[in-house]
Structure formats: structure tokens, C-alpha cells
Q: What sequence folds into this?
């Protein structure tokens, strides 16, 4: 399946029961707005944990009706994340979302050994972009979570992302391992890792995808540019997933796409027992809404 | 295309301009026998640097026609090495061959930074073309003799030399198998890591012309049936022209096994040098020694 717009993710929710999303520290204007909008569109059933008074004030400010929506009054932020994680752990909720709580606080609870959401997999971040200048949605990883992934981490990140894309109906995602150049260069570790990932994919040690790399950004997304460079690649020009060498490159690309290319983005954390919506304050309410949609689409 | 070592020998005979071959410290039986045969077959002109009386004695004992040689007396092996390397360097001869001189002294002269024979940035290694009745084509194997534990750069160089040789034999796009114990990729095996990197380099045209895959075991490299049974997706597909080994200790027993048990013959030479250098072990068969000289003639040809 080829997805062209983030709004098409909604089709994936047809015939699926509506999932429960718990918002930790829900007294946050943008997160709350996105969740309530998603609830209105029947994308999720929200559970709001936070300062109830503040939640009600923000909701009325945004003219949302809280009728029938479950609110748990807990003004202490630290406790909201613990409660939210526990709810997902017990199966009361299917999706975890971060509100007005620090990422590290929330993740600390996610990684709790007794009641967290660990699966043994590495946690990684995936961002799914809708850009006018590309012929389909394009996923980018990891722009927010893993700082300087080594080969083993990259394998885990690819596996997380590929199974996410598989769930979105992209059967054999084309994975471009990004470098500054498409040539192997011994002084650039990213190009060496790319060669190893390609070989592991060829030997079916990484499955359900087609990996090629190193590819420079232009070769990865433009067939013309790949042809111009004489690169023979199944991935070049038709990439579904861009694997970043490190967080600096990833983060800058993410923000360039949003600010310069006016891309729409949905993002989430993979590798935990349930999808985690963990958007940053700088993400728009629309991005938060689309992220909820993405999480709902892959929630089990 | 040259598909056997006999064809190789035929191909380099009777050229209008025969290559000139200089032998360093030439008086031993092994060397003189092979060189005389090559001269007799109208393959080379031979210039022997050695102890004249010893050369004459050995020739008489073997019944060789001494008139076939140009003999230059030198007092000892070090002088012989210096002189012959100088001849090559000045372009007066086209091929260098080791005689009775110790391998270490011979290689020292070749590797000498100022007066030696190494191309800039080159890696001294060894490639053999092996002819075995039970394989459907010639098999180029590296490194049987020089590099104990080649690193990535050295492996790339080895591959390039072997490819260059196979191309000279008329194989347009040699299939290169990078040999390991298994086809699986593991970051814990440095060779497998190097191989994965090399495959990508080949894919990107950084090593060319070739079709490369590895790690592969010998079966996947050379036996189509095994490829089918194992279901491994490999472009080399059991049809390898070139086998690159991870170490000398893996490669050397492999080629000797083929010689001893596989009725193999070989033609081998040093690579990375400005001109072909013939260096062979005393244990090679008469035929193989002759093929080594034939190979050096082919590799000395300037334009295909």
C-alpha cells in the first residue's frame, strides 16, 4: 500500500475498535486540544490524568465538551505519568501520550522494571512526513531518541520502524541508510554501518524490507539524482524510510522539513509494549493530532 | 578468453617482441629448468644474474642449452637483487624472477622505498590462477603467499589485483567470492564486516569491474547446487572466478590441497609491483613453474 497523506491513516482505523489513549499531565493546552479533537473524530477514547480544574478550564477555552470523557484528578505531575504507564501496562489503555510532563520523567516510568512498558527492544522514535515534493509519505528515524546509535542499535531501530510501516500496510518498505555520500568511505562510520546493514538484509538477517546504503539524501529521494550518479538501487528515489546516522542529522532534517518544506508530520516512540505519543512542545497541535492518528493506526 | 593454463602458455608464445625476463641469483635447478623451457618455447628472452660457473655447472647437469641464456656474473645474491631490480626499474627488462636468493632478501629489494618496484600506495600480495579438472573454469585465488592477515584496504587491493588478472584472461566481469566459514553477516567477525563493506564498494563501482559477494563458503562460491539447496540469494551463484581468502593460513592450505588432491596446476605471481614478478615455491610442479612464467608474460603485455 502507498500512503500519500497523513489523513489517509484514518482509513486504517476502519473496522477496528476505537483505542483508549491515556494522556499523562493532561493540563497542557496543545496536547489536550489534539486529544479532544481526535476523540471528536472517534480516533481514540481519551483518559485524561492531570489537574482537573486546569483541564476543564483549558477545554472550555478551546470550546471542547468534556461530557462523557474520563478525567482522573492528579495535580502532581510525576504521579500522572506513573498512573498513565500503569494503565497501559494493565491494559486499561492502549496508547500512552505525554502531556505537560518532561520526556525523561515519562520515560523513566515507561522503563520501570516492575510495571513499565519494556519489551526488551530498544526504544526508538519514528517520524512520518507528508511533503508536497515527495510522491508518498516518508518515515525518518531516529530524530529524537537515540543519540549516536551503533550498528546493533541501528538494526533495532530499523526493525522497530519496519514493523511499524508493515502495520501501516507498507509491505516491503524501502530503507535508505543515509550518509553524506553514496560511496563507502572508511573514515565515515555511517557508510560502513550502511554496508553492513545492506549485507544483513541481503542475507535475510534483517527481514521484511529492502535496505540500501550508504545513500546521500538526494539519491535516496530522487531517482533522477541516483541515475545521474549511476547508482543502481531498488531503494534510490523510492525510499519509505530514511535511517539517520545520528540524532544531529536527524533532528536538523526533521526541523528543516517542518520549517522550510512546510511538511506535516506524525511521530511516535516505538519498541515499547504500546505506542507512545511523545511530541515536543514545538510540534503544532495538528502534528500532535496526526501523531495520535498514527499511534491509533498501529495500536493493538 | 583464456580458459586453461595450456591456453595461457599458447597465447604468450611466439610474440614478435618477446618480453625480457631477468632472474635474480639464477643458478638453481628449479629456476634454470623453467626458464630454459620458456626460452625454448619462444616465450621470453632470459637474463640470468648469478654465479656464472654455478649456472654453467647446473645447466650441464640438467642438460640445458646454455646458449639460450644471457648470463651476467655477479658476486652475491644481494648484488644480484640490486642489479636485476635496477634493470626492471630502468625498463631494460619486463619481468623479474626470483632464483636461489632468499625470499626475504628478494622482497626487501622489491619493497625498498627508493629503488624498489612497488607502485605508489600498492600492496604486495600474491594471486594464483589455478586449473583444476573438476571446476568448470579457471579459479583465481588470493593471497596464497604474502599477506598473513590482510586488513580491509589490503583485501580491497587483493581483489583489485585478482580482478585485473582475470580481466587480462578475457573475463569481462569476474565473479568475486569473498570466502568465509559461513555466508552470515556478523559484526563479531572482522572478515565478514570487511566483506560487507567490500560488497557495497563493488556495488557502488569503487571496486570494478566485478560481481562481488561475501561472506560465502566455498560451496556457495563454487557449487551451483549448494546455492540452490541453501537458497542463498547471491550474485556469484556458485560460479566464482576469484576466491579471496581472509588469511594466508586459510588460503595457502586451500591451494596446496588443490595441487595435491585435486590434480591442480597453477600460475602465480606477486602483485602490486610495477612489473610482473615471478616467485614460486620449490614444491611446485615443472608445469606450474612454466605456467608462472607464462602468466608473467601475459601480465607484462602492455595493451591487451
A:
Amino acid at each position: 500500500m502507498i500512503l500519500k497523506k497523513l489523513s489517509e491513516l484514518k482509513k486504517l482505523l476502519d473496522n477496528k475498535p476505537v483505542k483508549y489513549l491515556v494522556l499523562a499531565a493532561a493540563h497542557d493546552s496543545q496536547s489536550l486540544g489534539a486529544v479532544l479533537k481526535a476523540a471528536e473524530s472517534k480516533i481514540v477514547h481519551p483518559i485524561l490524568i492531570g489537574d482537573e480544574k486546569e483541564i476543564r478550564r483549558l477545554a472550555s477555552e478551546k470550546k471542547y465538551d468534556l461530557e462523557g470523557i474520563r478525567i482522573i484528578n492528579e495535580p502532581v505531575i510525576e504521579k500522572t505519568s506513573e498512573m498513565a504507564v500503569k494503565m497501559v501496562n494493565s491494559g486499561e489503555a492502549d496508547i500512552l501520550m505525554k502531556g505537560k510532563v518532561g520526556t525523561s520523567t515519562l520515560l523513566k516510568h515507561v522503563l520501570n522494571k516492575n510495571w513499565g512498558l519494556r519489551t526488551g527492544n530498544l526504544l526508538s522514535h519514528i517520524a512520518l512526513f507528508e511533503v508536497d515534493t515527495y510522491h508518498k509519505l516518508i518515515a525518518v528515524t531516529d530524530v529524537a531518541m537515540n543519540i549516536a546509535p551503533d550498528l546493533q542499535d541501528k538494526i533495532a531501530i530499523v526493525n522497530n520502524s519496519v514493523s511499524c510501516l508493515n502495520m501501516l500496510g507498507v509491505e516491503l518498505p524501502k530503507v535508505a541508510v543515509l550518509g553524506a555520500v553514496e560511496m563507502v568511505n572508511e573514515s565515515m562510520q555511517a557508510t560502513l554501518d550502511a554496508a553492513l546493514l545492506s549485507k544483513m538484509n541481503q542475507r535475510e538477517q534483517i527481514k521484511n524490507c529492502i535496505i540500501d546504503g550508504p545513500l546521500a539524501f538526494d539519491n535516496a529521494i530522487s531517482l533522477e539524482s541516483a541515475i545521474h550518479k549511476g547508482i543502481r538501487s531498488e531503494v534510490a528515489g523510492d525510499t519509505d524510510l530514511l535511517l539517520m546516522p545520528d540524532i544531529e542529522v536527524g533532528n536538523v532534517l526533521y526541523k528543516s522539513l517542518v520549517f522550510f518544506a512546510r511538511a506535516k508530520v506524525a511521530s511516535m516512540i516505538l519498541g515499547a509494549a504500546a505506542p507512545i505519543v511523545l511530541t515536543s512542545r514545538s510540534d503544532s497541535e495538528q502534528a500532535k493530532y496526526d501523531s495520535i492518528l498514527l499511534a491509533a493506526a498501529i495500536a493493538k | 578468453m583464456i580458459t586453461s593454463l595450456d591456453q595461457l602458455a599458447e597465447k604468450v608464445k611466439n610474440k614478435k617482441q618477446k618480453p625480457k625476463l631477468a632472474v635474480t641469483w639464477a643458478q638453481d635447478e628449479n629456476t634454470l629448468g623453467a626458464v630454459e623451457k620458456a626460452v625454448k618455447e619462444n616465450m621470453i628472452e632470459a637474463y640470468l644474474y648469478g654465479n656464472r660457473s654455478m649456472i654453467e655447472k647446473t645447466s650441464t647437469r640438467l642438460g640445458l642449452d646454455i646458449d639460450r641464456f644471457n648470463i651476467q656474473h655477479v658476486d652475491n645474491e644481494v648484488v644480484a637483487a640490486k642489479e636485476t631490480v635496477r634493470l626492471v626499474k630502468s625498463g631494460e627488462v619486463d619481468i623479474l624472477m626470483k632464483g636461489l636468493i632468499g625470499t626475504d632478501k628478494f622482497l626487501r629489494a622489491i619493497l625498498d622505498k627508493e629503488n624498489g618496484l612497488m607502485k605508489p600506495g600498492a600492496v604486495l600480495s600474491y594471486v594464483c590462477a589455478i586449473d583444476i579438472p573438476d571446476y568448470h573454469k579457471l579459479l583465481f585465488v588470493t593471497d596464497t603467499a604474502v599477506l598473513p592477515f590482510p586488513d580491509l584496504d589490503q583485501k580491497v587491493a587483493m581483489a583489485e589485483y585478482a580482478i585485473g588478472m582475470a580481466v587480462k584472461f578475457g573475463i569481462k566481469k569476474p565473479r568475486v567470492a569473498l570466502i568465509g566459514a559461513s555466508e552470515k553477516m556478523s559484526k563479531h567477525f572482522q572478515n565478514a564486516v570487511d566483506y560487507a563493506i567490500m560488497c557495497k564498494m563493488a556495488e557502488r563501482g569503487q571496486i570494478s569491474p566485478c560481481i562481488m559477494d561475501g561472506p560465502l563458503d566455498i560451496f556457495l562460491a563454487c557449487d551451483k547446487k549448494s546455492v540452490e539447496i541453501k537458497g542463498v540469494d547471491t550474485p556469484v551463484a556458485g560460479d566464482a572466478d576469484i576466491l579471496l581468502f581472509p588469511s594466508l593460513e586459510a588460503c595457502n592450505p586451500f591451494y596446496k590441497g588443490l595441487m595435491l588432491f585435486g590434480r591442480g596446476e597453477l600460475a602465480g605471481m606477486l602483485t602490486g609491483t610495477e612489473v610482473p614478478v615471478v616467485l614460486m615455491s620449490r614444491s611446485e610442479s615443472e608445469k606450474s613453474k612454466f605456467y608462472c612464467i607464462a602468466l608473467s608474460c601475459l601480465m607484462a603485455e602492455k595493451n591487451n
User: Anything to note?
Assistant: The longest helix of chain B spans residues 152-168.
